Amino acid sequence: MKTLIVANKSVNLAPLEQALRSRGYELFFIDGNLLEEDFPHPTYNLIFVSMTFSREDCLKLCRSLKHEFFHAFFILLAEEITDETLQEFLNVGVDDLFLLPFRDREINLRLSAIEKQIENKTEIRTKIKTTNGFRTAALQQFPYIVSHHLRQTLIQIKKQLNELLIQPRTIPLDRETKTYLGQLLERTRLMHQLIGEVLFDTNHDFKRNTSDSPITHQDYLIVDRHLIIQEHSDGIVRYAERDIIIFKGEDVRTSFPELTGSEETLLNVIRDKRNSFEIPGIARVSERDTPLYFDIYITRYKSDLIENPYLIILLNDSTDRMIFQQKLVQSANEAELLLRRLREANDYIDRVVNSMVDALIVTTQAGIIKKVNRATQELFGYNKSELLHQPFTKLLCDRDDLSQVKDINVKPRTEISCLRKTGEKISVAFSFGLIRTVDDRQEYVYVGRDITERQKTEMRIRKLNVSLQEKALELQNVNEELEAFSRTVSHDLRTPISHVEFFNQMLLEEYSDKLDEEGQDYIQQIDKSCQRMKRLIKDLLQLSRITKSDLELTEVNLSQMSANVLESLKVDAPHRQVKFLICPSLIVRANEPLLQIVLENLLGNAWKYTNKRDIAIIELGATTSLLHDSGNPHIANSLVYYIRDNGAGFNMDHAAKLFRAFERLHSSTEFEGTGIGLTTVQRIIQRHGGQIWAEGEVERGATFYFTLSSE
User: Fold this and answer.
1) For 163-173, what is the mean pLDDT?
2) What is the CATH number of the domain that holds 27?
């Protein structure tokens, strides 16, 4: 058996050479880097190719050798090789792989198996020639090559389906995905059936006896060394490039241009330097619906009756085979496309699962972890390999807590104490789900979220709430005590003040003629102090009643109420020159008695602080777009009321004191007052859901703004 070994001299192939020679092989050696067209022998049964140079060069070399020695059995020699690279070599015609270094026992076993395969291939080729006259090597090998690649594709599809269907999924498959998977399964089944039918038909043809095979017609051409047609069959015209009559004595390349460029190879065939030459899968396209495909096989023709050898060109109709091959290739491409889509869908689901912020854990019915996502690894501090195939209870502080997680009918979300890899205790809120695999096994899905910080925050909030409740109760008690104190003091002070006022009046009436001017001034000062004390008591009682009184709202004419207050003020000082500017028809929804107190205080202040002006101006108005910078939120797009005067004004640096009880920006000798009026006004405005603030400038007047959200 003739064997060709293509390898560099540096490769140690001594064990292989010894095994081959001991089995009677005739060995021929060629350096792969110096490979040329001339070979030591025209035919080989077995070819070894060493992968000691670049992958691209080795692929090119195998492709060239396969084209030259199509019937030979090819074996690749490599120290190591990936699945992808091996697939590339299988695609160019490599039949088997030997891994280096060799083992004597393995070499002999492998060679025995290879000899059996070579014997089967030789027998098949012989039967093909005796039954059908001719079949090209491409047709012989095609069913096996296609079946090999399709089987590889089916294995990949099965693997992907296993990952998608058998492995647990937290995201249910929608209707479109289920339909798509059904189509994929159906195509896979048809492809598998198709492979079996191809191999069955091929083997059936090989096993048929000569007497059982139908008589087939083989068209031919006989040409000389100059490619001039000497003889041809009647049906040769259908294979020509054009529908013309083929004559003896014309150049065969006129009707069959595919032979152009192969003249040197054809000469080698006619010189007996080469066994044969073939061109498979030639297409002829005409106006017919179905194209014509055929194979050309050329061999040397020598007879005792002729002096010079000729070339015999055999033409075989391969239309059915080529159409069948195209369908197989199309099916393989569709399967690859489906496989790619399946892989993309699988990757998409994995990306979705790994993008979850919650921990995802899938376990078997026995509680063994089968799948985790990235959030699980980050939460518990383990890597993926440390969690897979481990019991789920490894993550729990108490094994009994697992039953609480699964009791979904009672509590759909359970807070469990867990342990991180570092030993740190954390609280995790778990939800639970039950799924069934395609083989009807139960598996569990746990989704957990770290709530440790939330529980700490809730604990702090609960403590703060308790503290706030205690302080609110204390404030309520203090307010009640202050209100009671205010009422008591106000009530108790009225009696002695009334006595002081009474006796002071009696002293003035009965003894005024006995007192000098200074004594009478003392009596007037006592009377003024009594009046001031009575006003203070009245204001305190009014302030205490404001927060307790019911807030009954009605429509109130703010303009008319303000005019009435100003008229009453004018009665007490008719000599003053005061100009009133009141915006008409300002209707508000408010509590009328409380709003009366607001206007009396604000307009009373405006009247009081303008008493040194020759012509006083007091204005009541409203605006819809006013912003203020008093420290409160800005008021925008709401109705804002204002009372403006041209009186003494105030320094804006002290504006914060305006609404504090007993705080005054002017002395009592300059402007009388108790310091409680604006505090009362602020509480009334706040009870109406509004705000109040002021703007002013010393000796240039002041403006008080307020809103009434209750309207």
Assistant:
1) 53
2) 3.40.50.2300
Instruction: Check: CB of residue 696 under 8 Å from CB of residue 702.
Output: yes
Secondary structure in 3-state letters for 377-436 = HHHHCCCHHHHCCCEHHHHECCCCHHHHHHCCCCCCEEEEEEECCCCCEEEEEEEEEEEE
25 plus 74 within the same structural domain? yes
Residues contacting residue 641 through CB under 8 Å, at least 6 positions apart: 558, 586, 588, 620, 621, 622, 705, 706, 707, 708
Task: Give the residue carrying structure tokens 């009647």.
Answer: 234
The whole-angstrom distance between residue 243's C-alpha and the CA centroid of its chain comes to 62
Q: CA 28, CA 39: separation in Å to the nearest integer?
A: 9
Tell me, what's the pLDDT at 642? Answer: 93
Residue carrying structure tokens 């518990």: 380
pLDDT at position 380: 92
Q: What is the pLDDT of residue 213?
A: 35
Distance CA 628, CA 36 (A): 97
Is residue 533 located within the same domain as residue 601? no
CB 627 within 8 A of CB 619: no
Average pLDDT over the chain reads: 77
The two structure tokens encoding residue 151: 């089987």
How far apart CA 114 and CA 16 sit, in angstroms, is 14
| Those residues with Cβ within 8 angstroms of residue 152's Cβ, 6 or more apart along the chain or in another chain | 87
Which is nearest to 598 in space by CA: 701, 490, 491, 691?
A: 691
- Which pLDDT band holds residue 435 (cuts at 50, 70, 90)? confident
Q: Give pLDDT, residue 487.
A: 66
Contacts for 578 with CB less than 8 Å, ≥ 6 apart: 566, 570, 607, 610, 615, 616, 617, 618
CATH code of the domain covering residue 587: 3.30.565.10
Dihedral sign computed on CA atoms, order 330, 331, 332, 333: positive
Average pLDDT over residues 244-253: 85
Q: 152 or 562: whose pLDDT is higher?
A: 562
Q: Please give the average per-residue pLDDT across 226-252, as a whole number.
A: 84
Evaluate whether residue 89 is within a structural domain: yes
What is the DSSP track for 100-139?
SSP-HHHHHHHHHHHHHHHHHHHHHHHHHHHHHS---HHH
3-state secondary structure of 304: coil
pLDDT at 633: 47
**The domain containing residue 91 runs over which residues?**
1-132
Instruction: Answer whether residue 283 is part of any domain.
Output: no
Contacts of residue 77, defined as CB under 8 A and 6 or more positions apart, other chains included, come to 7, 11, 13, 16, 48, 49, 50, 51, 98, 100
Question: CA-based angle 377:381:385, to the nearest 5?
Answer: 55
Q: Distance between CA atoms of 394 and 384, rounded to whole angstroms? A: 14
Residue with tokens 């695999």: 437
CA atoms of 524 and 528, how far apart (whole Å)? 6
Please count the other Cβ atoms lying within 10 Å of the Cβ belonging to residue 447. Answer: 20
Which bin fits 564, alpha (ψ -120 to 50), beta or left (φ > 0)?
Answer: alpha
The better pLDDT of the pair 116, 424 is held by 424
Count of other CB atoms within 10 angstroms of residue 325: 19
104 pLDDT higher than 80: no
Angle separating helix axes 452-511 and 517-546, nearest 10 degrees: 150
Taking the CA atoms of residue 627, residue 632, residue 637 and residue 640 in that order, the dihedral angle to the nearest 10 degrees is: -80
Query: How far apart are the C-alpha atoms of 338 and 423, rounded to whole Å?
Result: 47
Give pLDDT, residue 641: 92
Q: Is the peptide bond before 101 cis (omega within 30 degrees of 0)?
A: yes
- Per-residue pLDDT at 627 exceeds 50: no
Does this model's pTM top 0.85? My answer is: no
CA 425 from chain centre, in angstroms, equals: 31
CA distances from residue 86 to 91, 95, 234, 579 in whole angstroms, order as listed = 9, 10, 47, 106
Number of domains in the chain: 4
Q: What tens digit of pLDDT does each residue of 267-296 get? A: 999 988 888 899 888 888 765 557 888 899
Instruction: Give the amino acid at 407.
Output: D
**Residue 381, pLDDT score:** 92
